[in-house]
C-alpha cells in the first residue's frame, strides 16, 4: 500500500506538477519569452504568444525524409530520449514543500539534465551530415568545459549543507557560499541552453543548424520540446536553490514560477546583448576564469564542513 | 474537417519557416529578403523564421534568373524540403529572367524546373511585398495540405511608390515627403 502511494505520488509529479502537464506549456511559454525578449531588445515586435505551440503543431504535420538502417532508428530515438530525460528532470524539482524526494535525487537530476546534451552529440554524429558533425564536436567541447564548473558549483552547495537531497537543499537557509555556487550555475546556464555568447553548437550563420541540420518534421518538434523542457529544468534548478524556504504550497509555487521567469528574462537579455564567442575563447572562459571560483567554492565548502 | 485538421491548418498558416536560396541573383532581392526580417518590417510577427537547413523549412524563397550552375542545386534543395511545401519566386528574375532574357548562361525561368506557388514581382521587390508573398504562400500551403488540391500559382501585385494599390507604408512615406516639402 505504501509502495503504491509512493508510486502514485511519483507518477503525479512526473505527469502533472511540476511534470509534463505543467512543464510542456511552461516550455512553450519560456521559448516564447526568449524570442519575444530578444525581439524587444532589437526594437522589433516579436512573435505572437502562441508561436512555439503553432511551430510544434506544424512540425508534427510535416513529413520526414526516408531513413533506413541502424542510423535511421537511432536518429528517431535520440529526440525521444532527450524529451523523456528532460521531462524526468523537471519532475524531480522540489517545487512544493514536503513533496517527497529521496537522498541522492540531486545526482539523478544532474544526470537527467546532462542526457539531452549527450543525445544532441549522438544525433549530430548519427545524422552523417558534415554540419551535424561539426556541431556535435562543438557541443562535446562545450559540455566538457561548462560541466566541470556546473558540477563543482552544485557539489559545493551540497557539500556545505551535508546532503544530496534536493528537498533538504531547498529548505536550508541561504549562506554566502551558496550564493557563490548560484552565480557559478547562472554563468553555466547560457552554455547549457545554447544561448548567445555560447551558442556554438547551433551557430546558424556558420554551420546551418549544427546537429539538427538533418532533422525534420515530428523529430524536430521533439528537439524543440526537449530544448524547452531543458529551459524549465535548468532554470527551475537555479530557482530552487535561490528560493527561500516557504511552508504554504501556493506561495512556494508562485515564488518558483516568478523566479524561473526572472532567470529566463535575464538569460534572454544577455543573449540579445552579446555576440557569439569563438570556441577557443569559450573554452578559455570556462577553464581559466570560471573554474577558479568553482574550485574556491568547493574548497571552502569542504573546509567549513571539516571545521564544523 | 475535424478539429485536429483545423488546428493544423491554422498552425501552418501562422508558422512559415523560410529557406532562402540564391539562383544566380544579383543580391538585390536577397538584401530585401533580409530587410523584411529587420526591425522596420519584422516578419517574425507572422511567425516567419529564416532557417539554416532546408529540412526545417516550409517555404523555399528563390531569387535570381536561374543560371545553368544553379539548376541542379535548386532541384536538390527543393527535394530536401519536406512536404507540405511551397515555393516563392522573389523578384522579376525567377519569373521572367528579367533583363537577362536570352542570355546563354541562363536556364530560366524558375517554373521550368520546380513548381512555383507565388511570384513576387519587382526589381527588387519591397520588403513588405515579400512579406505579403510569404503570407500568401503560407495560406496556399495550409489550403493545399488540407484539401489535397493543386493550387494555381499566384502573382502578387506590384507595390511601392508610384504603383497602383500602393501599400500603406509607402503612402505614409509619400505623406511625410509632402510634409517635408511643404
Note down, in words, how this protein is organized.
The complex is a heterodimer of chains A (308) and B (182). With 308 residues, chain A is mainly alpha-helical. Chain A has one domain. Helices cover 75% and strands 0% of the residues of chain A. Chain A contains 12 helices and no strands. Chain B is of the alpha/beta class. Chain B has one domain (3-181): Rossmann fold. Chain B has helices at 3-14, 28-35, 68-80, 92-96, 127-147, 168-181; strands spanning 17-22, 49-50, 59-63, 86-90, 118-120, 154-155. In chain B, strands 2-1-3-4-5-6 form a 6-stranded parallel β-sheet. In chain B, strand 3, helix 3 (68-80) and strand 4 (86-90) form a beta-alpha-beta unit. Chain A binds chain B through residues 35, 39, 42-48, 50-51, 53-55, 57-58, 60-65, 131, 204-205, 207-209, 212-217, 220, and chain B through 7-8, 10-12, 14-15, 17, 38-39, 42, 44-45, 47, 51-53, 55-56, 58, 80, 82-84, 145.
Task: Kindly summarize this structure in a few lines.
The complex is a heterodimer of chains A (308) and B (182). Chain A is mainly α.
Helix and strand topology:
The complex is a heterodimer of chains A (308) and B (182).
Chain A: H1 2-15, H2 20-41, H3 51-60, H4 69-92, H5 105-127, H6 130-160, H7 166-171, H8 176-192, H9 204-207, H10 217-242, H11 249-273, H12 279-307
Helix pairs in contact in A: 1-4, 2-10, 2-11, 3-10, 4-5, 4-10, 5-6, 6-8, 6-12, 8-10, 8-12, 10-11
Chain B: H1 3-14, E1 17-22, H2 28-35, E2 49-50, E3 59-63, H3 68-80, E4 86-90, H4 92-96, E5 118-120, H5 127-147, E6 154-155, H6 168-181
